[in-house]
Design a protein that fits this description.
It contains six helices and four strands; from the N terminus they run E-H-E-H-E-H-E-H-H-H. It has one domain (2-160): Metalloproteases ("zincins"), catalytic domain (Collagenase (Catalytic Domain)). The two termini are 27 Å apart. The protein is of the alpha/beta class. The protein has a four-stranded mixed sheet with strand order 1-2-4-3.
Amino acid sequence: MYIELVDETNKVPKEIIEQTKHILNFAAEKLGLRPSTEMAVTFVDNARSHELNLQYRDTDRPTDVISLEYKPDEEEFFFDEEMDIPEELLEEMDPFIGELYISIDKAQEQAQDFGHSLEREYAWLAVHGFLHINGYDHYPMGGPEEAEMFGLQEEILTAYGLTR
């Protein structure tokens, strides 16, 4: 999977940027995504996170990760799940699945609050956002969707080697 990584803050250590790329590729393999899949991850500060959260979620505060799922125009692409689409055609279609914005300020706060490493927090946020852009959700809280998403998220992090 191709991942465009941008650090708007110029404060994210190179190791975290590399880890983000590796864990997202690991998660993509776990979900069985095509190698031609593409996405973007941008590291931002709380001010930018606040701005994006207001713009996309109508929520007037910063947040830890914003996931923007890309959905092609349904009039341009209409496929029934039962259709047998040749692999060559699938590879030619727009492979972009979405983008994540991760707040470095929230990552640092939450790593301290939860008592785990900054590496685990960045990975948790990346995988969490990645699952969202791949159709997973955790609402309503306490429901089966939440259990499925958080279970898969923990499975990916543990298999990758980032335990609590």
